[in-house]
Amino acid sequence: QSKGSKMSADEISELYDGLKQSYLTDFDMMLTGYAPSAEAVAAIGAIGRDLKLKASTKTGSFFWELMRSLRLPHVVLDPVMGDEGRIYVDEDVVPAYKGLLRDADLILPNHFELELLSDIKIGSMSDLTNAMTKLHRDHRIPHIIVTSVRFDSSSPVISVIGSTSRADDSPRLFKVDIPAIDCFFSGTGDMFAALIVVRLREAAFDEGLFASKAWQSPDETDALDLPLARAVEKVLGSMFTILEKTKTARDAELDNMSGPQGALEMDSEKRLHLRKTKAAEVRLVRNLQDLREPTVTHQVHALAKTESWTQAKIP
After folding, report:
1. Using CA atoms, how far apart are residues 13 and 258, in angstroms rounded to an integer?
2. pTM of structure
3. Where are the alpha helices (DSSP H) in the chain?
4. What string of DSSP letters covers 26-84?
5. Per residue of the chain (315 residues), what is the pLDDT tens digit?
6. Per residue in 258-283, is it b (16+ CB within 10 Å) or e — as a string?
7. d(CA 20, CA 175)
8. Residue 103's closest CA among 46, 168, 28, 35?
Protein backbone atom coordinates (compact mmCIF):
# COMPACT_ATOMS: atom_id res chain seq x y z
CA GLN A 1 0.00 0.00 0.00
CA SER A 2 3.00 2.33 0.02
CA LYS A 3 3.31 5.00 -2.66
CA GLY A 4 5.91 7.59 -3.61
CA SER A 5 9.49 7.47 -4.83
CA LYS A 6 12.98 6.90 -3.43
CA MET A 7 15.57 9.68 -3.46
CA SER A 8 18.49 9.03 -5.75
CA ALA A 9 22.11 9.60 -4.75
CA ASP A 10 22.21 12.74 -6.92
CA GLU A 11 19.12 14.14 -5.21
CA ILE A 12 20.62 13.49 -1.76
CA SER A 13 23.84 15.26 -2.76
CA GLU A 14 21.94 18.13 -4.33
CA LEU A 15 19.86 18.60 -1.18
CA TYR A 16 23.02 18.81 0.92
CA ASP A 17 24.60 21.27 -1.53
CA GLY A 18 21.56 23.49 -1.08
CA LEU A 19 21.96 23.39 2.69
CA LYS A 20 25.63 24.32 2.38
CA GLN A 21 24.87 27.25 0.09
CA SER A 22 22.39 28.51 2.68
CA TYR A 23 24.89 28.02 5.56
CA LEU A 24 22.62 25.47 7.23
CA THR A 25 25.12 22.69 7.93
CA ASP A 26 26.28 23.60 11.44
CA PHE A 27 25.17 20.29 12.93
CA ASP A 28 26.20 18.61 16.19
CA MET A 29 25.00 15.18 15.06
CA MET A 30 24.02 13.44 11.83
CA LEU A 31 21.62 10.48 11.81
CA THR A 32 21.36 8.27 8.75
CA GLY A 33 18.34 6.17 7.82
CA TYR A 34 17.12 3.97 5.00
CA ALA A 35 19.13 4.30 1.80
CA PRO A 36 17.77 2.50 -1.29
CA SER A 37 21.06 1.89 -3.11
CA ALA A 38 24.82 1.63 -2.68
CA GLU A 39 25.16 4.97 -4.48
CA ALA A 40 22.82 6.59 -1.94
CA VAL A 41 24.83 5.11 0.95
CA ALA A 42 28.01 6.53 -0.61
CA ALA A 43 26.39 9.95 -0.98
CA ILE A 44 25.35 9.92 2.68
CA GLY A 45 28.88 8.90 3.68
CA ALA A 46 30.34 11.78 1.69
CA ILE A 47 28.06 14.18 3.57
CA GLY A 48 29.20 12.83 6.94
CA ARG A 49 32.87 13.14 5.99
CA ASP A 50 32.34 16.65 4.65
CA LEU A 51 30.66 17.76 7.87
CA LYS A 52 33.52 16.42 9.96
CA LEU A 53 36.16 17.93 7.68
CA LYS A 54 34.42 21.29 7.72
CA ALA A 55 34.25 21.30 11.51
CA SER A 56 37.87 20.18 11.97
CA THR A 57 39.48 22.67 9.57
CA LYS A 58 37.51 25.86 10.19
CA THR A 59 39.76 28.49 11.80
CA GLY A 60 39.83 32.23 12.26
CA SER A 61 39.24 33.08 15.89
CA PHE A 62 40.45 32.24 19.37
CA PHE A 63 36.90 31.31 20.32
CA TRP A 64 36.70 28.79 17.49
CA GLU A 65 40.04 27.23 18.44
CA LEU A 66 38.82 26.89 22.02
CA MET A 67 35.54 25.30 20.99
CA ARG A 68 36.68 23.22 18.03
CA SER A 69 36.74 19.91 19.90
CA LEU A 70 33.16 20.48 20.99
CA ARG A 71 31.88 21.06 17.50
CA LEU A 72 32.86 17.94 15.60
CA PRO A 73 29.57 16.45 14.39
CA HIS A 74 28.86 12.90 15.51
CA VAL A 75 27.70 10.46 12.86
CA VAL A 76 25.04 7.98 13.98
CA LEU A 77 24.75 5.24 11.38
CA ASP A 78 21.57 3.17 11.27
CA PRO A 79 22.51 0.54 8.65
CA VAL A 80 19.02 -0.30 7.46
CA MET A 81 19.41 -3.48 5.40
CA GLY A 82 17.03 -6.16 6.66
CA ASP A 83 15.65 -8.10 9.57
CA GLU A 84 14.91 -11.65 10.68
CA GLY A 85 17.26 -13.16 8.10
CA ARG A 86 15.90 -11.23 5.11
CA ILE A 87 17.65 -8.45 3.19
CA TYR A 88 15.34 -5.80 1.78
CA VAL A 89 17.93 -3.65 0.02
CA ASP A 90 20.15 -4.37 -2.98
CA GLU A 91 23.01 -6.75 -2.21
CA ASP A 92 25.64 -4.08 -2.99
CA VAL A 93 24.30 -1.92 -0.14
CA VAL A 94 25.99 -4.24 2.39
CA PRO A 95 29.61 -3.53 1.31
CA ALA A 96 28.68 0.14 0.90
CA TYR A 97 27.68 0.31 4.57
CA LYS A 98 30.84 -1.56 5.57
CA GLY A 99 32.78 1.21 3.84
CA LEU A 100 31.22 3.80 6.14
CA LEU A 101 31.90 2.08 9.47
CA ARG A 102 35.14 3.95 10.20
CA ASP A 103 33.33 7.27 9.77
CA ALA A 104 30.64 6.39 12.32
CA ASP A 105 30.68 7.30 16.01
CA LEU A 106 27.66 5.11 16.81
CA ILE A 107 26.03 2.34 14.81
CA LEU A 108 22.56 0.90 15.41
CA PRO A 109 22.27 -2.49 13.66
CA ASN A 110 19.68 -5.06 14.58
CA HIS A 111 20.67 -8.70 15.16
CA PHE A 112 20.61 -9.60 11.44
CA GLU A 113 22.35 -6.41 10.29
CA LEU A 114 25.16 -7.07 12.78
CA GLU A 115 25.70 -10.43 11.08
CA LEU A 116 25.96 -8.70 7.70
CA LEU A 117 28.43 -6.09 8.94
CA SER A 118 30.65 -8.45 10.93
CA ASP A 119 30.48 -11.55 8.71
CA ILE A 120 29.81 -13.60 11.85
CA LYS A 121 26.82 -15.94 12.07
CA ILE A 122 25.15 -15.08 15.37
CA GLY A 123 23.35 -17.87 17.17
CA SER A 124 24.20 -17.03 20.78
CA MET A 125 25.00 -14.09 23.02
CA SER A 126 28.68 -15.03 22.86
CA ASP A 127 28.58 -14.87 19.04
CA LEU A 128 26.88 -11.48 19.21
CA THR A 129 29.39 -9.95 21.60
CA ASN A 130 32.25 -11.37 19.52
CA ALA A 131 30.75 -9.62 16.47
CA MET A 132 30.52 -6.33 18.36
CA THR A 133 34.10 -6.69 19.54
CA LYS A 134 35.25 -7.32 15.97
CA LEU A 135 33.60 -4.09 14.79
CA HIS A 136 35.17 -2.13 17.66
CA ARG A 137 38.57 -3.57 16.84
CA ASP A 138 38.56 -3.61 13.03
CA HIS A 139 36.67 -0.38 12.35
CA ARG A 140 37.41 1.65 15.49
CA ILE A 141 33.72 2.28 16.11
CA PRO A 142 33.38 3.99 19.52
CA HIS A 143 29.75 3.08 20.28
CA ILE A 144 27.54 0.16 19.19
CA ILE A 145 23.92 -0.64 20.04
CA VAL A 146 22.33 -3.84 18.74
CA THR A 147 18.54 -3.89 18.79
CA SER A 148 15.89 -6.61 18.50
CA VAL A 149 18.03 -9.39 19.97
CA ARG A 150 16.05 -12.58 20.52
CA PHE A 151 17.62 -15.98 19.83
CA ASP A 152 14.34 -17.83 20.35
CA SER A 153 11.35 -16.35 18.54
CA SER A 154 9.07 -17.66 21.29
CA SER A 155 10.98 -15.84 24.03
CA PRO A 156 8.87 -13.31 25.95
CA VAL A 157 11.91 -11.02 26.21
CA ILE A 158 13.74 -8.86 23.67
CA SER A 159 17.22 -7.55 24.46
CA VAL A 160 19.18 -4.47 23.48
CA ILE A 161 22.96 -4.88 23.74
CA GLY A 162 25.29 -1.88 23.90
CA SER A 163 28.98 -1.17 24.17
CA THR A 164 31.39 1.76 24.30
CA SER A 165 34.98 0.84 23.53
CA ARG A 166 38.05 1.58 25.63
CA ALA A 167 41.24 3.13 24.31
CA ASP A 168 42.48 -0.33 23.23
CA ASP A 169 39.20 -0.94 21.32
CA SER A 170 38.00 -3.58 23.78
CA PRO A 171 34.27 -3.49 24.54
CA ARG A 172 32.35 -2.43 27.63
CA LEU A 173 29.18 -4.46 27.22
CA PHE A 174 25.78 -4.00 28.80
CA LYS A 175 22.31 -5.38 28.22
CA VAL A 176 18.72 -4.27 28.74
CA ASP A 177 15.93 -6.86 28.64
CA ILE A 178 12.37 -5.74 27.93
CA PRO A 179 9.16 -7.76 27.63
CA ALA A 180 7.99 -8.38 24.08
CA ILE A 181 4.66 -6.71 23.30
CA ASP A 182 2.29 -8.88 21.26
CA CYS A 183 1.63 -6.33 18.53
CA PHE A 184 3.21 -5.32 15.23
CA PHE A 185 4.40 -1.69 15.18
CA SER A 186 5.84 0.20 12.24
CA GLY A 187 8.67 2.67 12.70
CA THR A 188 10.03 1.56 16.05
CA GLY A 189 13.57 1.38 14.66
CA ASP A 190 13.35 4.99 13.49
CA MET A 191 11.87 5.97 16.84
CA PHE A 192 14.76 4.34 18.71
CA ALA A 193 17.37 5.99 16.47
CA ALA A 194 15.86 9.48 16.84
CA LEU A 195 15.57 9.20 20.61
CA ILE A 196 19.08 7.80 21.13
CA VAL A 197 20.59 10.80 19.34
CA VAL A 198 18.93 13.14 21.85
CA ARG A 199 19.59 11.04 24.94
CA LEU A 200 23.23 10.25 24.12
CA ARG A 201 23.96 13.95 23.58
CA GLU A 202 22.24 14.74 26.87
CA ALA A 203 24.13 12.03 28.78
CA ALA A 204 27.49 13.03 27.28
CA PHE A 205 26.87 16.65 28.30
CA ASP A 206 25.92 15.61 31.84
CA GLU A 207 29.20 13.67 32.13
CA GLY A 208 31.29 16.55 30.74
CA LEU A 209 32.38 14.56 27.70
CA PHE A 210 31.75 17.10 24.93
CA ALA A 211 35.49 17.77 24.68
CA SER A 212 36.29 14.04 24.46
CA LYS A 213 36.70 12.30 21.14
CA ALA A 214 33.42 10.65 20.15
CA TRP A 215 32.16 11.34 23.69
CA GLN A 216 33.98 8.27 24.98
CA SER A 217 34.21 7.80 28.73
CA PRO A 218 37.58 7.16 30.43
CA ASP A 219 38.64 3.53 30.47
CA GLU A 220 37.93 3.18 34.19
CA THR A 221 34.23 3.93 33.68
CA ASP A 222 32.18 0.78 34.26
CA ALA A 223 29.85 -0.43 31.51
CA LEU A 224 26.78 0.24 33.65
CA ASP A 225 27.83 3.86 34.19
CA LEU A 226 28.44 4.70 30.53
CA PRO A 227 26.48 7.62 29.03
CA LEU A 228 25.42 5.19 26.31
CA ALA A 229 23.89 2.87 28.92
CA ARG A 230 22.05 5.74 30.63
CA ALA A 231 20.78 6.91 27.24
CA VAL A 232 19.49 3.44 26.31
CA GLU A 233 17.61 3.17 29.61
CA LYS A 234 15.78 6.44 28.96
CA VAL A 235 15.02 5.63 25.33
CA LEU A 236 13.57 2.22 26.21
CA GLY A 237 11.64 3.78 29.06
CA SER A 238 9.91 6.13 26.63
CA MET A 239 9.37 3.48 24.00
CA PHE A 240 8.04 0.73 26.24
CA THR A 241 5.54 3.07 27.91
CA ILE A 242 4.31 4.52 24.61
CA LEU A 243 4.09 1.16 22.86
CA GLU A 244 2.11 -0.33 25.74
CA LYS A 245 -0.32 2.60 25.53
CA THR A 246 -0.49 2.16 21.76
CA LYS A 247 -1.31 -1.55 22.17
CA THR A 248 -4.11 -0.73 24.63
CA ALA A 249 -5.54 1.92 22.30
CA ARG A 250 -5.22 -0.43 19.31
CA ASP A 251 -7.19 -3.19 21.03
CA ALA A 252 -9.94 -0.75 22.01
CA GLU A 253 -10.10 0.68 18.48
CA LEU A 254 -10.41 -2.75 16.89
CA ASP A 255 -13.15 -3.72 19.34
CA ASN A 256 -15.07 -0.56 18.50
CA MET A 257 -14.85 -1.20 14.76
CA SER A 258 -16.99 -4.30 14.75
CA GLY A 259 -17.57 -5.64 18.21
CA PRO A 260 -15.20 -8.27 19.58
CA GLN A 261 -11.95 -8.57 17.65
CA GLY A 262 -12.87 -12.03 16.43
CA ALA A 263 -15.56 -10.49 14.21
CA LEU A 264 -12.82 -8.78 12.22
CA GLU A 265 -11.82 -12.15 10.84
CA MET A 266 -14.79 -11.88 8.48
CA ASP A 267 -12.90 -9.14 6.62
CA SER A 268 -10.63 -10.01 3.74
CA GLU A 269 -7.07 -10.78 4.76
CA LYS A 270 -5.78 -7.56 3.16
CA ARG A 271 -8.45 -5.35 4.72
CA LEU A 272 -7.88 -6.95 8.12
CA HIS A 273 -4.14 -6.29 7.88
CA LEU A 274 -4.71 -2.65 6.96
CA ARG A 275 -7.18 -2.16 9.80
CA LYS A 276 -4.76 -3.60 12.35
CA THR A 277 -1.84 -1.62 10.95
CA LYS A 278 -3.76 1.64 11.11
CA ALA A 279 -4.98 0.93 14.64
CA ALA A 280 -1.39 0.20 15.77
CA GLU A 281 0.03 3.52 14.59
CA VAL A 282 2.40 4.57 17.38
CA ARG A 283 0.74 7.18 19.63
CA LEU A 284 3.68 9.62 19.78
CA VAL A 285 1.97 12.99 19.75
CA ARG A 286 -0.58 11.93 22.35
CA ASN A 287 2.17 10.83 24.74
CA LEU A 288 4.74 13.61 24.49
CA GLN A 289 5.23 13.65 28.25
CA ASP A 290 6.61 10.10 28.06
CA LEU A 291 9.16 11.36 25.54
CA ARG A 292 10.15 14.41 27.55
CA GLU A 293 10.31 12.74 30.96
CA PRO A 294 10.70 8.98 30.53
CA THR A 295 10.30 6.57 33.40
CA VAL A 296 13.16 4.07 33.44
CA THR A 297 11.18 0.85 33.30
CA HIS A 298 14.04 -1.57 32.66
CA GLN A 299 17.60 -1.10 33.87
CA VAL A 300 20.91 -2.01 32.26
CA HIS A 301 22.90 -4.88 33.64
CA ALA A 302 26.24 -6.44 32.83
CA LEU A 303 26.50 -9.53 30.70
CA ALA A 304 27.24 -12.76 32.50
CA LYS A 305 30.71 -14.19 31.95
CA THR A 306 29.25 -16.96 29.83
CA GLU A 307 27.68 -14.32 27.57
CA SER A 308 30.61 -11.99 27.16
CA TRP A 309 33.20 -11.93 24.40
CA THR A 310 36.02 -14.39 23.99
CA GLN A 311 39.11 -13.09 22.22
CA ALA A 312 40.01 -16.50 20.80
CA LYS A 313 36.74 -16.80 18.93
CA ILE A 314 37.04 -13.55 17.00
CA PRO A 315 37.95 -14.19 13.34
Report:
1. 49
2. 0.89
3. 9-21, 38-57, 62-71, 93-98, 111-118, 125-139, 188-206, 227-258, 269-279, 288-292
4. --SEEE----SSHHHHHHHHHHHHHHHHHHHH--S-HHHHHHHHHHPPEEEE----EET
5. 568 888 899 999 999 999 999 999 888 889 998 998 999 999 999 999 998 888 776 544 333 333 334 446 788 999 999 998 899 899 999 999 999 999 999 999 999 999 999 999 999 999 999 999 999 999 999 999 999 999 988 899 999 999 999 999 999 999 999 999 999 898 899 999 999 999 999 999 999 998 888 899 999 999 999 999 999 999 999 999 999 999 999 999 888 876 555 555 555 777 878 888 888 999 999 999 999 999 998 999 988 654 554 443 444
6. eeeeeebeeeeeeeeeebbeebbebb
7. 40
8. 46
Can you give the length of the chain in residues?
315
* Residue type, position 153, single letter: S
